[in-house]
Design goal:
The complex is a heterodimer. By secondary structure, chain A is mostly beta strands. Chain A contains no helices and twelve strands. Classes of the chains: A mainly beta, B mainly beta.
Chain lengths: 115, 114
């Protein structure tokens, strides 16, 4: 019954490495989002996408990029990982707001540690 | 721009007692409102949502919330909590157009004590 799948639950990477976090949804949702979650700061939006090959910056895009080549897949890329990017990363998807089932569906999260 | 304030960062409560988690939002337009729950080391799960209609919304696990437009609030309530309700709870808001993503509060950690 898993609908939003994040490729890794736990990841450990070295400073300076290029890191790919993958997210796949099977609900044919148009919209996809990447958040990071840190204690006391809640969820902060990194990037989002309302269509294939489309991307928009969120509140904290610095140090990140994204790719959406197919509707069901939204990848988050850390170009050169740094220790301050150690965090929980959450992917979500949603349909259009005017639909009765509107709401975000989240993946289980990827806990990334950069050493 | 919208914002969400969850007034309590931590709420301890005894098992079988009632609980209210408070959420206030600011927006100049009509909104959709959500409550999500996060159990340890998991993603967020939708508890309930207000899109339109009745201002009293019932969700999963016995939770309910009331939308109060005049007070711009969407407080979450449960009449009798269980140990299994221990989790972090997030309130979120979006405008009706969907042109801007959900804005989340910082969360309230509910701890149920036996």
């Amino acid at each position: 019954d898993v609908k939003v799948t994040q490729s890794s639950r736990y990841l450990v990477k070295r400073t300076g490495e290029k890191v790919f976090l993958e997210c796949v949804q099977d609900m044919d949702h148009e919209n996809m989002f990447w958040y990071r979650q840190d204690p006391g700061l809640g969820l902060r939006l990194i990037y989002f996408s309302y269509d294939v090959k489309m991307k928009e910056k969120g509140d904290i895009p610095e140090g990140y990029s994204v790719s959406r080549e197919k509707k069901e897949r939204f990848s988050l890329i850390l170009e050169s990982a740094s220790t301050n990017q150690t965090s929980m990363y959450l992917c979500a998807s949603s349909s259009y707001p005017q639909t009765v089932n509107y709401g975000y569906t989240f993946g289980s999260g990827t806990r990334l540690t950069v050493v | 721009a919208q914002s969400v304030t969850q007034l309590d960062s931590q709420v301890p409560v005894f098992e079988e007692a009632p609980v209210e988690l408070r959420c206030n939002y600011s927006s100049s337009v009509s909104v959709y409102l959500f409550w999500y729950v996060q159990y340890p080391n998991q993603g967020l799960q939708l508890l309930l949502k207000y899109l339109s209609g009745s201002t009293l919304v019932k969700g999963i696990n016995g939770f309910e919330a009331e939308f109060n437009k005049s007070q711009t609030s969407f407080h979450l309530r449960k009449p009798s909590v269980h140990i299994s309700d221990t989790a972090e709870y997030f309130c979120a808001v979006s405008d009706l157009s969907g042109n801007t993503p959900l804005v989340f509060g910082k969360g309230t950690r509910l701890s149920v004590i036996a």
